[in-house]
Amino acid sequence: MRLTIVGGGGFRVPLVYGALLADRAPGRVTRVVLHDVDEGRLAAVTRVLAEQAQGVPDAPEVVATTDLDAALTGADFVFSAIRVGGLEGRAADERVALAEGVLGQETVGAGGIAYGLRTVPVALDLARRVERLAPHAWVINFTNPAGLVTEAMSHRLGDRVIGICDSPVGLARRVARVLGVPADRAHVDYGGLNHLGWVRAVRADGEDLLPRLLADRELLESFEEGRLFGADWLQALGAIPNEYLHYYYFNRETVRAYQEAGQTRGVFLRDQQARFYAEAGRPGVPALELWDRTRAEREATYMAENRDAAGAGEREEEDLSGGYEKVALALMRAIARNERATLILNVRNRGALPGLDEDAVVEIPCRVDADGAHPTALAPLPGHAAALVGAVKAVEREVITAAATGSRAAAVKAFALHPLVDSVTVARRLMAGYLDAHPGLTYLR
User: Fold this and answer.
1) Beta bridge pairs of residue 2
2) Closest-CA residue to 7 (of 131, 146, 111)
3) Pairing state of beta strands 138-141 and 187-193?
């Protein structure tokens, strides 16, 4: 089976390859094609993968190319992990937003909108190429903003594009852990959009264990989300929110923490990864060891500003291992081998989550088999959650419209409608700032 990774020079590609190396079952991936526009990044990541494969019999063959059409031709699965504008673009997204006193995070608020406006045109081109060159391939999208990009690609690829994210997986794992339930026995009721969802029940042996967790303050504050949001707020919600909802529930505190930080997350990652790629390209440097050290530092500093604002302390050791590569492998195995699984995925709604239309991409549990991902019907979200989901989905739709039509008015509308941008005047200034920062947005008329 052949897997093509678009964005194959990306820093997290070794996580995917490591998961493939551990898969020894029949019908596994035997050839990995890495595509990237940057030959230097491709070379560095290829070196890391070669060191990972040492001593592993029948390790999947790795091929690297800058020719996208060649990379896609004959693919069974296409993994999309592109970053349009690179980390320099992310740093600019943060800078422009924070100058206006609003959030610049890459998937939430003004920063997420700017990133979407840069990314959706490229994602649509990728979808068209897949449609032409690999019409039977399944596309697994991890490109952020993951839900928005998946919905844009679904206009061409239908249900053959599925978005994945490690955030709800990590949340479900942590909640199961503190409840003392093995993760494979915990049935988690989770619903919303990418980076905007809530755990509303955790069932094991027919019993919902979430009320017990919500009633126990000490247990609640023993894991990441409990420390981040505080027991009082979780008890008031009656649910456990995705960590990204901290940007909404504690927006002023988070913006202030970002403004007072010595550098933004985008600048940190830009500089850190520049050092990694420069060093990994030097002869004699142990690339895998260097990658491991860099990844550990990256994971330990994840959402550091939010944790500082909340006084949540350092991340737990168990939470530093990521997880999206495991979701990607489980998804591929379920489809390719009909190994049925239940996974939290970004898929077209199909009536599963009340209040949103059929084609809206949502993040919910799905049953996966050889025919793809089938969303599980959920109870309606409570009013406050449904209102927030509806508002953010409307913003995503305006971003897609702007990217598909070149409408600057739709782009400004997206900024103005977002709950974390509270002014049409600010929306217009944001648009002007991003047009100055990103020459690639000149398609907006």
Assistant:
1) 31
2) 146
3) unpaired
Task: Write out the two tokens for 333.
Answer: 């195995």
Question: What CA–CA distance (Å, rounded) separates 266 from 41?
Answer: 18
The rounded distance, in Å, linking the Cα atoms of 302 and 306 is 9
Angstrom distance (rounded) from CA 80 to CA 340: 23
CB neighbours of residue 251 within 10 Å: 17
Q: Which of 132, 141, 133, 142 is nearest to 159 (CA)?
A: 141
- Averaged in consecutive runs of 10 residues, what is the pLDDT profile of the chain (445 residues)? 97 95 90 97 97 95 98 97 96 96 95 98 98 97 97 98 95 95 92 98 95 96 95 98 97 93 91 95 93 91 74 60 82 94 97 97 97 97 98 98 97 98 96 96 95
The token duo for 325 is: 């590569």
Classify residue 436 as exposed, middle or buried by CB count within 10 Å of its CB (0-12, 13-18, 19+): exposed
Residue corresponding to tokens 């077209």:
348
Query: How far apart, in whole angstroms, are the C-alpha atoms of residue 442 and residue 445?
Result: 7
Burial (CB < 10 A; 0-12, 13-18, 19+), residue 136, is exposed
What's the predicted TM-score (pTM) here?
0.95
